[in-house]
Design goal:
Distance between the termini: 29 Å
Largest sheet: 5 strands, antiparallel
Helix content: 40-55%
Radius of gyration: 39 Å
Length: 482
């Protein structure tokens, strides 16, 4: 708990056909891949079959993600412990199956977009035709070209109507029939010979022509009734589509669960293909770091499950590799929220002392010292107990902070900010401010001294003796500070 897990450098050479299973077993036992140092291997890297495996996995994974989004599914695969990863042929079959499902989903998505577009278009036409209810004319007649008359539909500011009527005298008429958005709607009727002159007069009074859609080919109320019938028919089609879509997604669910399981099994080797190498003997070489406590289990499982002979070499990390070795930590559940806070600033280097316990203890004690109150601490602890769902993992943090606040509340004699209701078990901070300042001073000195000791230890572990002795964070700096 005070340092990261002990690690070993692993070099595993297997037959190419055993590559997916070997990579999966390494990943399942906590191996970290991606180290090619010291490899005397073919510069072409992994075999052509391995590259095909990687490409098939990427295609299948991409289609799987698109399908789960399309069906609004959350799938959490649980591979069977003794199930082998899929080979190239099985992965190709999976990819082909997902491609067919993807084509089906794409057709379904295209139908959905068409329904959405048709419904939006119908609603827009309904809004437009509503403003034309006052016009008791065949709108199709207005759109058709006439032999002698010209008709134009448009709008004008209401205050401009008197001036327009005067300007159109002897040229044409503007027949008002309604209003929309604060503008007067009307029809311009004039001989075709005077159409250009009439439009010129109207242009000077903020005339805006209203184009009529092709669907407006009858009287407004007839058009509106037809649009309403069309909208109802579209709603029926959409309801049927939603039912078909739900049934399709349910059918896809079982196949996507199987795909998720196979992809989880194939992922380690697919991700490793960029770093795996082929040695002169034609064996696939997998290199990486493995927790020491998993070595025995990995060796036993490799021997039991790999068909062809393999070689497994292990060694301890060299001092020069210290910064490259992965830092793997295992914490009990109650330390997890504190670890999240600390690792937000960075992860300790391999072999360094882990400050999680120091941080957890200091966080809880300092919180209790600063916010010592029985009532407030009880409320914080109760809030921690009430956490559920994804926030449940922060329950130990709130329980620890609330418990420390209650303990110091009894020590201070504080209940919901009132002093005097409880007899202090130690001291009342309000009446002894200098004592509290001394306690804070010594607390700070002790905290800095402990962190200085951790820094010295970490530098000695890294064999940086010069920094451990003479640096500001070393022995010399600690003595000067003391």
């Amino acid at each position: 708990m005070f340092t990261s897990l002990s690690m070993r450098y692993v070099t595993l050479a297997v037959a190419p056909r055993d590559g997916p299973l070997a990579a999966y077993l390494l990943a399942r036992h906590g191996a970290c891949f991606g180290d090619r140092e010291g490899a005397r291997c073919d510069p072409e890297g992994v075999t052509a079959e391995g590259r095909r495996y990687r490409d098939l996995y990427r295609q299948a994974q991409q289609r799987f993600e698109l399908l789960t989004r399309h069906c609004h599914l959350e799938i959490h695969p649980v591979p069977t412990p003794n199930e082998p990863p899929p080979d190239v042929e099985r992965l190709a079959e999976l990819n082909d199956g997902l491609e067919k499902l993807f084509s089906q989903a794409a057709s379904c998505e295209e139908t959905r977009h068409r329904f959405v577009s048709d419904l939006a278009h119908n609603e827009r036409l309904l809004r437009e035709i509503t403003a034309l209810r006052g016009l008791d004319l065949d709108l199709g007649m207005l759109q058709r070209k006439k032999q002698f008359l010209a008709t134009r539909l448009g709008s004008l500011p209401p205050e401009a109507l008197p001036r327009v009527e005067k300007a159109l005298e002897g040229v044409g008429i503007f027949e008002r029939f309604g209003e929309r958005d604060g503008r007067a709607l009307g029809v311009l009727i004039c001989p075709q010979l005077f159409e250009e002159a009439a439009l010129k007069h109207l242009a000077g009074h903020d005339w805006r022509e209203l184009p009529l859609p092709p669907e407006f080919a009858a009287r407004p109320r007839q058009v509106e009734a037809e649009l309403q019938r069309r909208g109802e028919a579209l709603e029926v089609e959409v309801t049927a589509y939603v039912a078909r879509h739900r049934a399709t997604c349910e059918q896809m669910g079982a196949r996507l669960n199987e795909a998720a399981r196979l992809l989880a099994l194939a992922e380690p080797f697919a991700m490793l293909c960029n770093d795996a190498l082929v040695d002169p003997a034609g064996r696939l070489v997998l290199r990486g770091w493995l927790p020491t406590r998993q070595v025995k289990h990995l060796s036993a499982e490799l021997a039991a499950r790999l068909e062809a002979p393999f070689s497994l070499d292990l060694r301890k990390p060299h001092p020069a590799e210290r910064e490259r070795v992965p830092s793997v930590f295992h914490y009990p559940g109650w330390l997890t929220p504190f670890a999240d806070l600390v690792h937000g600033y960075g992860t300790p280097c391999y072999g360094d002392l882990d400050p999680i316990l120091l941080f957890a203890a200091s966080f809880v004690l300092m919180f209790g010292m600063m916010f010592g109150d029985v009532g407030h601490g009880l409320m914080i602890a109760a809030a921690g107990l009430a956490l559920g769902g994804r926030l449940r993992r922060f329950r130990p943090l709130l329980l620890g902070a609330g418990g420390a606040s209650m303990l110091f509340g009894f020590a201070y004699g504080s209940l919901f900010g009132h002093h005097g209701l409880l007899t202090p078990l130690w001291v009342d901070p309000i009446h002894h401010p200098l004592l509290m300042l001394k306690v804070a001073l010594w607390w700070g000195f002790g905290f800095i001294a402990v962190t200085q000791f951790i820094t010295i230890y970490n530098r000695l572990a890294a064999r940086r003796f010069d920094l451990a002795l003479w640096d500001a964070g070393g022995v010399a700096g600690g003595l000067l500070y003391g």
